[in-house]
TrEMBL record:
Residues 13-286 form the FAD/NAD(P)-binding domain. It comes from Actinidia chinensis var. chinensis (Chinese soft-hair kiwi). Putative FAD-dependent oxidoreductase. This is Apoptosis-inducing factor A like. GO terms for molecular function: electron-transferring-flavoprotein dehydrogenase activity; flavin adenine dinucleotide binding. InterPro entries: FAD/NAD-bd_sf, FAD/NAD-binding_dom. One of its GO terms (cellular component) is cytoplasm. SUPFAM superfamilies: FAD/NAD(P)-binding domain. The lineage of its organism: Eukaryota, Viridiplantae, Streptophyta, Embryophyta, Tracheophyta. It comes from the Eukaryota.
């Protein structure tokens, strides 16, 4: 096992685990203030809310799949999964022990994705070819991913038959029923066949025939599964942080976004137990609070001066193809071109790239 010792001389060693929305932003924000190492199971950061557009327009992924080295110019990247952690070191799947003075855990969700950027771009291309070749498409899951995918396909390929099956009694259960109803009407207007309170056993599908839990038969040339992704905390379950996890596997944090009872360990993004909906724009806010606090602690600032995180209110925009969207903000719910103008054309890709210090338009090398 390789033990990495002398990294960075006097600068404090900050290890960030997870290179998603929150982890990549915190790593980028503190890279000139500490000796930063980002450990991620893949070599790139992908803007998640652009991934469904990339299925109908694969070239879209060229701006939204960003190699970590593009924004982390003064830090180190280890492309490997973290598999364990102690009070002083992180252990990776490749057997590296990475020592830290400060640790940030940002492993929001863990699911298999290609390790390299070229492989991920190829996967987007393959998904698009699957859609192009199909006359009928089944989408399983009526959360934001399923709805956005149905919207993308219905708008870009109006001739294809799209069926969306969801086991809940309404779409988009993470926001209010008004948004669900408006979205259902919109999908129906685009001839998407929505089946609620049903599930599909994909293993029993044969030759393009799928049977739902209600006994209905769906014919589809291909399917996409968009149900919820598992929380990325299983690697912590046998570690010094096992008692810091709540019943849902989320890390319990204090108002400064440190793991409760820990002085030098932060947790940010979807993996935290912060009482708010799990959204990327909130994960970005967590990252900025944690970055501020890390900078303060690394310069021996007073703990009492640390920034506090205030949980966000329910705000969400779910895109419906390239021009429209459904939005819920605290005082209203709206659907159509107006919320679409905010999100649906560029899906905040330019904005996110800018926040990462990158050109909003130019594609990575
Ligand atoms: C399709 C889709 C559309 C969305 N649309 C929106 C939207 O429009 N607006 C919005 O605000 N939010 C949106 N969200 C939600 C948003 O993407 C999440 O809230 C956000 O990604 C959470 O960020 P995170 O950094 O906590 O976790 P993630 O972004 O899930 O990042 C976790 C990272 O940790 C890595 N990882 C996991 N386990 C390990 C390990 N053991 N070792 C090393 N690395 C590990 C993963 O590879 C990943 O890079 C969307 C999500 C999806 C899936």
């Amino acid at each position: 096992m390789e033990r990495q010792q002398e990294w960075g001389g006097e600068r404090r060693r900050v290890v960030v685990v997870g290179g998603g929305v929150a982890g990549s932003l915190v790593a980028k924000s503190i890279q000139f203030h500490g000796d930063v190492t980002l450990i991620d199971s893949k070599e790139y950061f992908e803007i998640p809310w652009a991934s469904l557009r990339a299925m109908v327009e694969p070239s879209f992924a060229e701006r939204s799949v960003i190699h970590h080295r593009e924004y982390l110019t003064n830090g180190r990247v280890i492309t490997s999964s973290a598999i364990s952690v102690t009070d002083t070191e992180v252990l990776t799947a490749e057997g590296r022990l990475v020592p830290y003075d400060y640790l940030v855990i940002a492993t929001g969700h863990a699911y298999p994705v290609p390790k390299t950027r070229p492989e991920r771009l190829k996967q987007c291309q393959a998904e698009n070819e699957k859609i192009e070749a199909a006359q009928s498409i089944l989408i399983v899951g009526g959360g934001p991913s399923g709805v956005e995918l149905a919207g993308e396909i219905a708008v870009d390929y109006p001739g294809k038959k799209v069926t969306l099956v969801h086991n809940g009694f309404r779409l988009l259960e993470f926001i209010g029923p008004k948004a669900s109803n408006k979205t259902l009407d919109w999908l129906k207007s685009k001839h998407v066949d929505v089946k609620l309170e049903q599930s599909v056993n994909l293993n029993s599908a044969s030759e393009g025939t799928y049977i739902t839990s209600a006994g209905e038969t769906i014919s589809a040339d291909c399917h996409f599964l968009t149900t919820g992704k598992p929380i990325g905390s299983s690697w912590l379950k046998e570690t010094v942080f096992k008692d810091c996890l709540d019943a849902f596997g989320r890390l319990k944090v204090d108002e400064n976004l440190r793991i409760r009872g820990r002085k030098n360990v932060f947790a940010i993004g979807d993996i935290t137990d912060v009482k708010e909906i799990k959204q990327g724009y909130l994960a970005q806010k967590h990252a900025l609070v944690a970055a501020k606090n890390l900078k303060l602690l690394m310069t021996n600032g007073k703990e009492s001066k640390m920034a506090k995180y205030e949980p966000g209110s329910v705000k969400a925009i779910v895109s419906l193809g390239r021009r429209e969207a459904v939005a819920q903000i605290p005082w209203t719910t709206t659907i159509g071109i107006v919320p679409g103008l905010i999100k649906s054309k560029d899906l905040f890709v330019g904005k996110t790239r800018k926040q990462m210090g990158l050109d909003p338009h130019i594609v990575d090398a």
